[in-house]
Predict the 3D structure of the following.
Amino acid sequence: MATAGFIYDFVGVSCWNATENRVISLELRDLKLSGQVPEPLKYCRSLQKLDIGSNALYGTIPSQICSWLPFLVTLYLSDDALSGYIPATLGKCTYLNELILSNNQFSGAIPYALGNLSRLKSLSVADNHLTGTIPLFFNRFAKEDFTGNSDLCGGSKCGGLSKKNVAVIIAAGVAGAAAALLLAFGLWFCDKCQKVN
């Protein structure tokens, strides 16, 4: 029995053409899928677009994903329950134009290896639990692409102080100086009193 092209009509599956099973795109968004990012993706080596967002996926992004899918151009993993670190090996997906990881539970720092993605045009890591500094090579992306990560900082803000913290430090300094002056005046006054007596 001939099987060429049998998956062409599956929902969310696009093949190179109707006569073969070389999958070019998987768009399985909002299909109530659960479980981890599946290892059998490695059999879709021609895949250029993977969109499995808005499901109930959990666990980590497989560190081998760029080895499995070496021609990946678009990766949408948003609005799931994925966690762990963003793997530095994503920097090996050299054809990647879009990387959308927003609204998950990723933690840790944004890997500097993602700077290898010279073709990257669209990026979002918003609404996760990321920490550390936004690498400078991501300055071309909008602030909204990084919001919702309370311990993530970028640009001149990193390691700096907020206006509120600066005000507290100034107030503490003024109060300390005033207390030192009062103490010095008190000691001087007591010394004068003793000399008079």
Notes: Confidence is low (pLDDT under 50) at residues 1-8. The longest helix spans residues 163-196. The two ends are 119 Å apart (CA to CA). Helices lie at 65-68, 163-196.
